[in-house]
């Protein structure tokens, strides 16, 4: 059995939170043989990097901006790998460039077109937890590119599609609701929702899942779970 797990920026915002995820992954490894983890940059790291770029220009060069903001995820994957290895759970981290996650389109809003799974499969077969930087890839001329809003979700769902397994998105909400629960008392959590209905909700402003990630899920038939905290099953499944 294998699974792709994704942790957003708020989930990896501090070293203590990364440590908790590592401990959870170590216990999960006893039940799930092959685990791939996609992580976002820690907390507000991407915003901080954008501010640094804007110190020099209000409209920074997009190629160099991608080079800069992609380093946020590189910190997260390395720290989570260090945390796992420190507790005796073998792990290895990779950037989008290293796994040849190919993209096309504009800098800052690229789309995933292919992925070389050989390196991932090799490490999974060696019983290692594989940690991949979300939000980034490499284009046809070798430049680092980023995937735009919700890019780490897109990375995780695409990986699950190529690796033929389920994808679990852990975020700061405990599932998909009929309305924004922070604004409406009548909002109800949805236990299962189709790709098409989730896509409509995303296009209409629901921020829990990025439209592109849902479309990739539909294309590859990936069951996508959206939930809160470590290993909670009380969330929403996006599926056929």
Describe this entry's structure for a reader.
This protein is of the alpha/beta class and 240 residues long. The chain has helices spanning 15-28, 45-56, 62-69, 71-86, 118-125, 151-163, 195-203, 211-220; strands at 2-7, 34-39, 91-94, 102-106, 109-114, 129-133, 136-138, 144-146, 166-171, 176-177, 189-190, 192-194, 224-228, 236-239. The protein has an eight-stranded mixed sheet, sandwiched between helices. Strands 4-5 form a two-stranded antiparallel ribbon. The longest helix is centred in the N-terminal third of the chain and has 16 residues, at 71-86. The radius of gyration is 17 Å and the shape is globular.
Mean pLDDT across the residues is 94
Number of DSSP E strands: 14
Q: Which strand order do you get reading across the main beta sheet?
A: 3-6-2-1-9-13-14-12
| Rg calc | 17 Å
* Count of folded domains: 1
**Unreliable residue stretches:** none
Number of helices: 8
**The CATH top-level class label:** Alpha Beta
Bin the strand percentage: 25-35%
Pairing-aware structural class of the strands and helices? alpha/beta
Architecture per CATH nomenclature, i.e. the level-2 architecture: 3-Layer(aba) Sandwich
């Amino acid at each position: 059995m294998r699974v792709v797990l994704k942790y957003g920026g708020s989930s990896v915002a501090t070293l203590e939170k990364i440590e908790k995820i590592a401990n959870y992954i170590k216990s999960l490894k006893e039940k799930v043989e092959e685990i791939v983890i996609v992580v976002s940059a820690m907390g507000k790291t991407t915003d901080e990097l954008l501010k640094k770029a804007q110190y020099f220009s209000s409209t920074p060069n997009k190629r160099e901006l991608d080079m800069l903001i992609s380093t946020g995820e590189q910190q997260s994957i390395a720290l989570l790998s260090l945390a796992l290895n420190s507790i005796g759970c073998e792990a290895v981290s990779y950037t989008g460039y290293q796994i040849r996650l190919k993209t096309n389109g504009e800098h800052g809003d690229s789309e995933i077109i292919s992925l070389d799974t050989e390196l991932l499969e090799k490490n999974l077969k060696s019983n290692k937890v594989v940690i991949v930087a979300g939000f980034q890839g490499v284009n046809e001329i070798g430049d680092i590119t980023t995937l735009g809003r919700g890019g780490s979700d897109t990375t995780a769902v695409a990986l699950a599609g190529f690796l033929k397994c389920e994808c679990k998105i852990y975020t700061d909400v405990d599932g998909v609701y009929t309305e924004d629960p922070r604004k409406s008392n009548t909002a109800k959590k949805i236990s299962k929702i189709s790709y098409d209905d989730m896509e409509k909700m995303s296009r209409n402003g629901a921020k829990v899942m990025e439209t592109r990630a849902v479309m990739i899920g539909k294309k590859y038939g990936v069951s996508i779970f959206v939930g809160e905290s470590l290993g909670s099953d009380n969330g929403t499944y996006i599926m056929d």
